[in-house]
Design brief:
Blueprint (H helix, E strand, L loop, with lengths): L1 E2 L9 E4 L17 H4 L1 H5 L2 H4 L9 E6 L17 E2 L14 H11 L1 E3 L5 E4 L6 E6 L9 H4 L6 H11 L4 E4 L12 H12 L3 E5 L20 E6 L15 E6 L3 E4 L5 E5 L1 H18 L5 H11 L19 H8 L30 H4 E4 L9 E5 L12
Parallel strand pairs: 1-4, 3-7, 3-8, 4-7, 8-9, 9-10, 10-11
Antiparallel strand pairs: 2-14, 5-6, 12-13, 13-15
Helix pairs in contact: 4-8, 6-7, 8-10, 9-10
């Protein structure tokens, strides 16, 4: 990954930390047992989807903390990206690219070993990852410096990705603090990407137990916003409920890869967004001419287990179903269509929310590099049967 001149941040970023989960039984805690823990693969019917495509020819930009390109589950799938932060941890440091690598593994992990049978398998294992570093890890020592910096790394990153071959942009980040508000430069960057035919996916927010504050960039028009559910399809209590929710995806007990070559389990709408980005990559691979608006509508129309009435703010239109979306896409016209951006203002108040408990400072911590925040922290090491928090591993 190249390094650009350090950008200055116009506002603080918020990182929402997840709680620790239970360590898996020792007999299943080795690398060769990881695949069995990936319940999301069955839930999303990946084996059936892969009969059509595994995402070859599609590039997913992961705007995050960076991506470790030498992880065995990602080897060959990570392209040369860009660093729009310009300071902080570097490759090999403890605070380097952990969240971004986790998201990349959900999207395009291909496992390792004979036939890729070991390690993490992503939803689109033949897609390429374009890493764009726009935020710092929570425990990056440079975070103190970040509080004093200014810039538009997220907006710049979206435009950079759109100009450098991205077909899909994954934003497993966001600001859903009580002071969150739309930023024109971010909105304009997203509309720029959409107009170029790039689908944009973002996490809905982890504020479901903290007032359901609006999260940006999820709330910008045209974005596919992902909420989180567990293996039973139940909305995760932490998942933000807002009008912009598009579809739900796995976000509880999710297995992810880490730069330390171990495997962890965690939760968050970050993971849900990555799963949806993987589904979008499959759609783009099978039907390259689909516009972002068509993709969003396909996901809405084909989601399964829809809420009563067809949609709600907790799960959007239902659980993302790449198989159904692929089948429906086969009958759509794509030739001669032009992608369009949204015009005008779109920011409503959303549903009624509970009054703030005034404790935002206790669960939100400032970061740098753009105007988003990390929304997932994995909590348990699965390999070698040793308990460890994700951030401390």
């Amino acid at each position: 990954m190249t390094t650009a001149t350090a950008r200055r941040s116009t506002q603080a970023l918020s990182v929402l930390l997840a709680a620790a989960l239970t360590l898996l039984a020792p007999g299943t805690a080795h690398a060769d047992g990881i695949r069995a823990q990936q319940w999301a693969l069955d839930a999303m019917h990946t084996q059936e989807a892969w009969r059509t495509t595994k995402g070859a020819g599609v590039t997913v930009a992961v705007l995050d903390t960076g991506v470790e390109n030498d992880h065995p589950d990602l080897a060959g799938n990570v392209l040369t990206g860009e660093d729009l932060v310009g300071f902080g941890a570097a490759r090999g440091d403890e605070a380097w690219a952990r969240h971004g690598t986790a998201m990349a593994s959900i999207i395009a992990g291909h496992g390792h070993g004979t036939g890729g049978a070991d390690g993490v398998m992503g939803i689109a294992p033949e897609a390429k990852i374009l890493p764009v570093r726009v935020i710092l890890e929570d425990k990056d020592p440079a975070r103190a410096k970040a509080r004093r910096t200014r810039g538009n790394a997220l907006a710049e990153g979206i435009r950079w990705a759109a100009d450098h071959g991205a077909d899909v942009i994954n934003l497993s980040l966001g600001d859903d603090s009580a002071s969150a508000h739309p930023e024109p430069t971010e909105d304009e960057a997203i509309q720029y990407a959409l107009k170029k035919g790039v689908a944009v996916v973002a996490s809905a927010g982890n504020g479901g137990e903290k007032g359901d504050h609006i999260s940006y960039p999820a709330a910008y028009p045209g974005v596919i916003a992902a909420t989180a559910v567990d293996r039973y399809g139940t909305r995760a209590s932490f998942s933000t409920r807002r009008w912009y929710a598009t579809v739900s995806a796995p976000g509880v007990d999710v297995v992810i890869a880490d730069p330390d070559h171990k495997y962890y389990e965690g939760w968050g709408t970050s993971a849900a967004a990555a799963f949806v980005s993987g589904a979008v990559a499959l759609l783009k691979a099978a039907h390259p001419g689909l516009t972002p608006a068509q993709i969003k509508k396909l996901l809405e129309d084909t989601a399964r287990d829809a809420p009563a009435g067809g949609r709600d703010d907790s799960r959007g239109f239902g659980f993302v179903d790449p198989v159904a979306a692929l089948k429906a896409a086969a009958g759509l016209k794509t030739e001669g269509l032009a992608s369009a951006a949204h015009r005008g203002k779109y920011f409503g108040s959303g549903p009624d929310t509970a009054a703030s408990d005034g404790s935002t400072s206790a669960w939100a911590a400032p970061l740098a590099g753009g105007t988003g925040g990390v929304l997932l922290v994995a909590a348990v090491v699965l390999w070698r049967g040793r308990r460890s928090s994700y951030d401390d591993a």
